[in-house]
């Protein structure tokens, strides 16, 4: 469990879009330390091969010119300037790569090993989700470190920072909460532990396909038991952090996790949702696709996937 984890290295990816600059600006609400080593990375597309003839042989070659790198350099420098403005004590450098955007970002992250990768989201429209699926989701699912998909939203100055932490009975949710509790958030920041119990129906299907009514008393007892177990899990996860300057609350909801998290984040006007990741196995990618990726793609706020 990340009981003493601190963010020391942050990798910020930018493509020059409003979304990527919004993710940078959103970092002021992420509780990051005053001193961090930061790299801003921008990736230029691989130039299209140009056919040339040498003697009787046709060859294809690519030529990378300064002109080709001009836009990525500008994106990285602009994002870097925003970071320097908000975090004057950070050490900020820019990195330019050439090739597939997601592959180059993941490759650099594997080399440099940041504690947190920051990327932007292009919204919740169909087009935005298409872009998310092609680049951002690949980074979210394949990066070995924690990933923050940042969304800039209008923050009410009189309202404290609000963070939802998804909690279940796994070590990963403990790591996610530990990371949040060890961030440098201002006093009064509100952290809400949210647990989903699943859905309890009054009708059940038997082995022959028949539909049978479930007694009200049975469903009520199942709900009561599930809520009790969820509250016990929340208390156990929260126990190591009894002395905190943060305003911590717990809530249990009936429903599937992704719907619960998205609905409560919208209702509560959360600044971020934080979830733990089980790793990079094939099953984890399946689970990530069914829960975390849905939250990342559809949430109105920033989302962090925490990996130990």
User: Major sheet: order of its strands?
Assistant: 5-2-1-6-7-14-13-8-9-12
What's the rounded overall pLDDT mean? 82
Task: Outline the low-pLDDT stretches.
Answer: 124-132, 282-289
The arrangement of helices and strands along the chain is EHEEEHEHEHEEHEEEHEHEHE
Oligomeric state, counting identical vs distinct chains: single chain
Supply Rg.
22 Å
Please work out how many helical segments DSSP would assign: 8
Could you tell me the strand content as a percent range?
A: 15-25%
Overall 3D shape: globular
Count of β-strands: 14
Structural class: alpha/beta
C-alpha termini separation: 7 Å
Helix content: 25-40%
Largest sheet: 10 strands, mixed
Summarize the structure.
This protein has 308 residues and is α/β, with parallel strands linked by helices. The chain is 39% helix and 25% strand.
Please provide a written account of the structure.
The protein is of the alpha/beta class. The chain has helices spanning 18-25, 66-86, 101-112, 126-142, 171-181, 216-238, 257-268, 282-298; strands at residues 9-13, 37-44, 50-54, 57-61, 91-98, 116-120, 146-150, 162-166, 190-196, 203-205, 211-213, 247-253, 272-276, 302-306. The strands form 3 sheets. A 10-stranded mixed β-sheet has the order 5-2-1-6-7-14-13-8-9-12, sandwiched between helices. The chain has a two-stranded antiparallel ribbon with strand order 3-4. It has a two-stranded antiparallel sheet with strand order 10-11. Strand 10 (203-205) and strand 11 form a beta hairpin. Helix 4 crosses helix 8.
